[in-house]
Amino acid sequence: MVTITQLAEQKINELMTEEKDVVGLRIYVRGGGCHGYQYGMAFESKMADDDTVIEKGNVKVIMDSQSAPLLQGAEVDYVDSLQGSGFSIKNPQAKTTCGCGSSFSA
After folding, report:
1. How far apart are the C-alpha atoms of 104 and 106, rounded to whole Å?
2. Residue 80 lies inside a defined structural domain of this protein
3. Which residues does 62 contact at the CB level (< 8 Å), separation at least 6?
4. Residue 64 carries which DSSP code?
């Protein structure tokens, strides 16, 4: 379903230790952005019954039932470059993406 790179796993784990009562990182897709859909991420303290959970090592990535199909086959990575650092999502379902990488059309 969704792949988490080793670098992303390490960074998520590192950030989770700084938060209280966190069970995992929620990745979601919502309407908006310049191409129709926009990615979002937030640390989550609870899960819903219909959530999809991907576990890698000590890390849980949580997706709601509407976002999971749009993220099918995606890869979550952590990038640290001259342009900045942060999480990046490579989604094979995205037909077009914007320059910032946080908006796409399916």
Report:
1. 7
2. yes
3. 23, 24, 25, 26, 27, 44, 47, 51, 52, 53
4. -
Amino acid identity for residue 79 in this structure: V
Amino acid at 84: G
**Residue 106 belongs to a domain:** no
Has residue 14 been placed in a domain?
yes
Distance of alpha carbon 73 from alpha carbon 75, whole angstroms? 7
Tokens, residue 75: 């890869």
Cα(58)–Cα(92) distance, integer angstroms: 26
Dihedrals φ, ψ of 49, to 5°? -60, -30
Q: Are strands 96-97 and 3-4 parallel, antiparallel or unpaired?
A: unpaired
pLDDT in tens, 11-56: 999 999 888 889 999 999 887 656 577 888 999 999 999 999 999 8
CATH number at residue 93: 2.60.300.12
Q: Tokens in use for 88? A: 């990046």
Which domain, by its residues, includes 28? 3-97
